[in-house]
Amino acid sequence: MNISKADQCRIRDYNLEQANIQRKREEDYRKVVEKRNFDQVVAERVARNIRLDADKGKNLDLEC
Prior knowledge:
By secondary structure, the chain is an all-alpha fold. The protein has one helix and no strands. About 80% of the residues lie in helices and about 0% in strands.
């Protein structure tokens, strides 16, 4: 079966477009994952800071 040059170009263009769409989809997903990880790190730091602030004054050095 012979495929004309025009059809070959259309197939090539379609494949390139699909590859670009897949690359964009993967990049968008990576950004979502990075944002979620960053938000989790921030939340952990905030929780740690709140816990440390709550401990202030409870651990007194009585020997001073």
